[in-house]
Specification:
The chain has about 210 residues and is of the alpha+beta class. It is built from 4 helices and 13 strands. The protein is about 15% helix and about 35% strand.
């Protein structure tokens, strides 16, 4: 059974569809007008559509992009008047054994699908630290999906790659610490957004989180 925080994470995610590509990826709201995703989802595409709750918005501006080894992009989006998308709470905390919940738009469930993973710890790849996760099938289309750490109740990573397209070997995630290193202003903006108006903070934290301060 999904938790209220899992369901809120689903509401924070968007499907990103480049106009000149048959492929797509996932992104998620990190402030009221910013979406975080992977660079390879949006790089070199002039027009990107955002699909969210049955709505489609086009011509999204890429605010900042970091290619290899970062593979991150921050999009600037102005929702239509009256729309107030929820946004995730970012946190750098993770450790081996943490249960992770991922929601995105994989090729086998293009309208949205959940994956549960288990954190195995961090690994180094091409000079960049990544979170290694096991126990679920990460597919094309999951790139850019948020990974909710169910121990802390916060998003700790961004799905960047699969470890196997055909088995439940898991995937690799970009840690939020890396996101903050490339986009330092986002840490302040995310915290400020939640300080002023936050659905996320109205939900009870997992019991485990009481012994692990955010």
């Amino acid at each position: 059974m999904s938790s209220s925080r899992d369901r809120l994470l689903q509401q924070c995610t968007v499907k990103l569809v480049p106009a000149d590509s048959r492929a797509w990826g996932t992104g998620f709201w990190v402030t009221p007008n910013q979406i975080l995703t992977c660079a390879h989802v949006v790089k070199e595409h002039e027009e990107i559509s955002v699909e969210w709750r049955g709505q489609v918005w086009t011509t999204v501006g890429v605010e900042q992009i970091v290619s290899a080894p970062g593979d991150l992009a921050l999009l600037q989006v102005n929702p239509p008047e009256g729309e107030q998308p929820p946004y995730v709470l970012l946190d750098t905390t993770f450790q081996s054994g943490d249960p992770l919940y991922v929601y995105g738009y994989p090729d086998d469930f293009p309208d949205g699908g959940s994956v549960t993973l288990e954190c195995e710890g961090d690994v180094e790849e091409q000079g960049s630290k990544l979170i290694k996760a096991k126990g679920g099938q990460v597919r094309p289309g999951h790139s850019g999906s948020p990974a909710l750490n169910r121990e802390t109740g916060c998003v700790c990573g961004v799905v960047s790659d699969t470890r196997s397209r055909s088995t439940d070997l898991g995937g690799l995630l970009i840690p939020v610490a890396t996101v903050f290193r490339y986009f330092p202003e986002l840490q302040v903006q995310n915290q400020a957004a939640h300080a002023s108006d936050s659905l996320w903070l109205t939900l009870p934290l997992p019991v485990q989180a009481k012994s692990r301060p955010l």
